[in-house]
Amino acid sequence: MVFSWPFGLSAEGSMGMSEGALSGAATSRWAPAADELPDSLGDLFGPVEGVVTLPLHLAWSGLRTFDLGDEKLLLGMYRIVLLNGRHEDYTHYLDASLLVASWPVLRKMLGRGVRTAWESRFAQLQPAAAA
């Protein structure tokens, strides 16, 4: 009897790819597609104050309303939009100046794929040592 491993796994547990295919250059499935990112941070015209309620396609569980005057709530909202959003969400809910100002803290709240996608596209978001 021959056992077929799920997802293309070999008996040794590898995915049948060369080591090079698994390098850090590989695109994360959690990273936004390059065409979903804005062309420029200047395209981000989201609110800078007040209370924002995110739609269900972004915040389907838990808190949906955020007071942008509260730094923790602002960071939480930006994290949700960056992790779950698409181009239209980025331009509608994120503000360029707030994103750049919040990025040193916010980048620690994001997965590597999302963080790398944004920092690779926008030099303003790269850590000072890397810029």
Mean pLDDT figure: 82
The global form is globular
Largest sheet: 2 strands, antiparallel
Which structural class should the secondary elements be placed in? Answer: mainly alpha
- Point out poorly predicted stretches: 7-26
User: How many individual helices?
Assistant: 4
Strand order of the largest sheet: 1-2
Structure, described:
With 131 residues, the chain is mainly α. Helix content is 32%, strand content 5%. A two-stranded antiparallel ribbon has the order 1-2. The longest helix is centred in the middle third of the chain and has 14 residues.
Structure, briefly:
This protein is mainly α and 131 residues long. The chain has helices spanning 71-84, 87-93, 96-106, 112-121; strands at 51-53, 65-67.
Per-chain topology:
Layout: E1 51-53, E2 65-67, H1 71-84, H2 87-93, H3 96-106, H4 112-121
Antiparallel strand pairs: 1-2
Please tag this protein with its features.
mainly alpha, two-stranded antiparallel ribbon, 2 strands
